[in-house]
Amino acid sequence: MSAEQLHVAESPADRVARAGLSAVTEPGDERIALRVRDHGAEATWQAVLGGDDSLDRSRVLQRRAEYVDGAEVLERADDLGIRYLCPGEPGWPVPLDDMAATLDYADVVPPPLGLWLSGDGDLAALAESAVAMVGSRACSRYGGRVASDLATDLALAGRTVVSGAAYGIDAAAHRGALGVGGQTIAVLACGVDVPYPRTHGQLLERIAADGLIISEVPPGSRPMRAWFLARNRIIAALSAGTVVVEAAPRSGALSTAGWAQKLSRETLVVPGPITSALSAGCHRLVRDGAGTLVTGVTDVLEAVGRIGEHTPPDPECESRPIDDLLPAHAMVREWMQVGAVETVAGLARRTGLPARTVATALRELAAAGWVTREDAGWRLGSTISPLETRT
């Protein structure tokens, strides 16, 4: 039996053991992954319960395990409508098997014990065409717009957009895909039932409705700082390529790029202004030969097409919804910041258009679903209908 085969769930008891282990061990624990591969999840769980000295931090794990019953963890998840998917089970995404294969090499990318899923999406099917998009939480207007537009184009090309549901680039990527009816996966560093960040509760609900929310930690788990870097390896492994839109020199997004490189995935980099610290990490990736420069969806599809099983459609043969907008409407929409509430006066100043023209454009964009009206102004919308063409 191969090392990869030893890593799969083999029985209901194995599932219970994996659920228990997911509640007491740290995500991405290389030694636990090796132990499960070599001895199985059940034996590993018994070793944890017994305080086996061969385990790292055995006493800490033993104390945690005293209060955990894997069967109860699974039952609580089921009551919440949350699924638990283990390696080797129907629906397990094939790309993640590459993680188990790294356990015999120096550049280890520890595989998850299993994944908790919120949503009705088929993870295996979604992963077949997945592209990850990551970047700065405190993104610039440029970065947010690029992420949103690129995610829109990827969704229109039939690709699943994978990200981490954080502020900034992550949120822009998810919203860009959802805005055109595309599918997206959010990989969290907390339980799939924990809205984090809290202000993204509605966004996460939309992602679960049209795609999937996944995590390797059980429902109810609050996020821990170290878990964010660990979850980045799942984002990279699920996807044929990772697009880094904006990243400062110490950005966590660069860790996702690092995981992608270890897994022989494409690392794709969006350039930014040479004066912007938010793009310094991106430029370093390209300078060091660790990333490929991309300036649009055509570049991304060409890169991931070399890995993916599906032949990507030619984006030059497709039109984007925004291409059909009148110039004034397109300008107003392009100058609206992701997640911000805009005013007519503010947009008039930034676009240079008369306030009356901006107001008319906003009303007509709202009628088509491009924007929504709020008490304090206007916000980018999600439902898009054709605008009436004028001459």
From TrEMBL:
Pfam families: DNA_processg_A (PF02481). GO terms for biological process: DNA-mediated transformation. It comes from the Bacteria. Residues 109-304 form the Smf/DprA SLOG domain. Transmembrane segments: none annotated. PANTHER family: PROTEIN SMF. NCBIfam families: dprA (TIGR00732). Belongs to the DprA/Smf family. This is DNA processing protein. It comes from Jiangella alba.
